[in-house]
Input
Amino acid sequence: LSAMGEPSMDPTIAADSPAQQDSLFSMTDVFLISLITGLFTYWFFFRKKKEEVPELPRMQTVAAPVRDSSFIEKMKKTGRNIVVFYGSQTGTAEEFANRLAKDAHRYGLRGMAADPEEYDLSDLSRLSEIDKSLAVFCMATYGEGDPTDNAQDFYDWLQEADADLSGLRFAVFGLGNKTYEHFNAMGKYVDKRLEELGAQRIFELGLGDDDGNLEEDFITWREQFWPAVCEHFGVEATGEESSIRQYELVVHTDVNMNKVYTGEMGRLKSYENQKPPFDAKNPFLAQVTENRKLNEGGERHLMHLELDISNSKIRYESGDHVAVYPANDSSLVNQIGEILGTDLDTVMSLNNLDEESNKKHPFPCPTSYRTALTYYLDITNPPRTNVLYELAQYATDSGEQERLRKMASSAAEGKALYLSWVVEARRNILAILQDMPSLRPPIDHLCELLPRLQARYYSIASSSKVHPNSIHICAVTVEYETKTGRLNKGVATSWLRSKVPVQQESSSQVPGQQESSSQVPVQQGSSSLVPMYVRKSQFRLPFKPSTPVIMIGPGTGIAPFMGFIQERAWLKQQGKEVGETVLYYGCRHEREDYLYREELARFQKEGVLTQLNVAFSRDQAEKVYVQHLLKKNKENVWKLVNEGMAHIYVCGDARNMARDVQNTFYEIVSEFGSMSQPQAVDYVKKLMTKGRYSLDVWS
Output
């Protein structure tokens, strides 16, 4: 625009000059000169317009480049014939997809792992253009039978698609948890839907159960999957079992420290220069303004934290989840560095050897080993078998090497050894290095193999109507002794427990600003900052405030209900008619771990909480749980559900509590609704379908 504007000034200057010499010319001359100048100016602009018009379409084309989202073209270009898509929320499905893609070379095939969010999945109909082609789907189920965030578009496409996938060969491995109502719903749906669209299943659906042994389920499925692939395509295993590095190490000796990642999840320096919107790749650094112990006694530490989200533009609703990115314990990181004899402050990059891959690094690079082990890598969970297999080559003791290879094998004896020595003993990578003195892998290869440290989700314990600039968390610190006598601590809860609250007045300071001059990671430099974002949930109060609610949440399962009750109190203050608000809460001892006792008593006194039923499980000889109180009040419960059209909410442990509560509702419905057991089950399932029975549970 400035280029177009500059020439338009020239005629003005030309017109001004004769005007200054007015005395030297007659009025006629001035008139003629003005007329000529005016015509010249008009002609000039008219001509420019004519010239610029054809340029506009070209400019628009440049401004909106078309993203190349064809995985088919990429596979053709790089000589791949197997694509492994993953729907992953915590990184496990992505890890399994990478392992399957890597396996392919053993059979003379070439594989690639792919995030469905990055590609146009309608191209599946073209996969048959590639010889010996196959699409594998590693699909995790999230929440109550939902797709993971990155598989949502794929799921929507599958539901609406009428594509002909008759040339497509596929296989599905699902990742789920049997304690949840909709076990492996996503894996089952993808498997069924692809067949409905005409695709050919070349191996049966695999159903991994995280409540059991997900790793073993995957290995068992995989060891039968590959022979089926070989048979279908008429190929054989090449016998190549050698370790293949996916990334190469580059050590930076002379690097600008402003170009080095210090714990950021996405954009470099994003913790020093915060820009909304905030999400998983761009978390907000919230300051902790309150961190107090909730329980009055007992061995456990239950805590209430408040995160300041002022000026972040973050919005949340009661029932949403807050995700926080924790940091590993520095003592564990230091011990790994000492055992491997590494300078943890070495700045390095791990660069993908496959230049065509969308994933250039396993974590943000360049960075230091210390930052990678602190913020990017999971060093506390027992490593999976593929990690043990890759590490085995570095054990100089033949017995230790054989033990590692055996645990990574698919033999029954090896699986049993892995289960007892690694999983049940809860040995993390540090414990394995300590218990195998000859195992000393290069730290860069270890960093390549370890999975990413994942965000932890907590049910928000506040209402945005009452606390628009604050998000509350209720959590219990995880701490236990393993079979080897080690003390294992939960990564996120131990890290949150150590957070020092700042005064509310200082929260207007730009997060991370005070650490910007330091070379230590921003969130490590401050003991009060928490990288976080909000994940939307389906766990919602009824649209009409007058609808009764029955909330069942023992222990920290009370978290979302603190938000619900706060919101109902606010609605009442606004003059709205608020229906019955019933809470069933449970804890071990009344005098030890009765969470939010004063707040709940106040809400009950104010008439917001119309019923407060509390089960103290260990205050008497016989244990009393929330389901026992539901049975005790069964007539009132049925009346609220049947006549009051109440909404039921359950939050907490999925393995026992949620199942027992559901069984109790079956009994109540059967008794008072005069239904058979199958009819009662169907009745409760319909409540779920209508959004009148909601779950927010974990295992």
